[in-house]
Amino acid sequence: MPIEKIIEPALTLAWDGIEMTKLQAYFFSVVGGIYVSTAASRAIFGSKEVFSHLPGEGERISNPAYADILEVHSIEGEDLFYRGAFAAHIL
C-alpha cells in the first residue's frame, strides 16, 4: 500500500482535528501542566476558548504542523529524518 494511503487518516485528523470526549479531557487534565507549560505546546494542546487551560469536552484540537510533517514524510520517505533541514532541526 502506498504511504500516501497509509497516512491519509492521520493527515485528516491532524488537519481537521478531533472533538475531545469527556475521557480524553480527563486524561489531558492528569498531565495538564505539561500541555500548557510553553507557548508552543499551548498553541497545539491549549483550549481555543479559555487561554492557558486545556481543551474541555466537546472542544476540537488539531495539529496542522504535524500534518505538514506527515505529508512531507510521505513524499521524502526516511530521508526526511536523516538528511536536510528537518533532520538538522531534530539534531
Main β-sheet: number of strands, strand sense, barrel status? Answer: 2 strands, antiparallel
Give the averaged pLDDT, no decimals. Answer: 87
Q: Helical region count?
A: 7
Compute the separation of the termini in Å: 31 Å
Number of strands: 2
- Number of domains in the coordinates? 2
Side by side, the strands of the main sheet go: 1-2
Enumerate the spans where pLDDT stays under 50 for 5 or more consecutive residues: none
Helix content: 55-70%
Strand fraction equals under 5%
Question: Please, could you describe this protein's structure?
Answer:
The protein has helices at residues 3-16, 22-30, 32-35, 39-45, 64-76, 79-82, 84-90; strands spanning 18-19, 60-61. The protein has 91 residues and is mostly helical. The protein has two domains: 1-17 and 62-91, no CATH class; 19-61, no CATH class. It has a two-stranded antiparallel sheet. Helix 1 (3-16) packs antiparallel against helix 5 (64-76). The two termini are 31 Å apart.
Give a short synopsis of this structure.
It is built from 7 helices and 2 strands, in the order αβαααβααα.
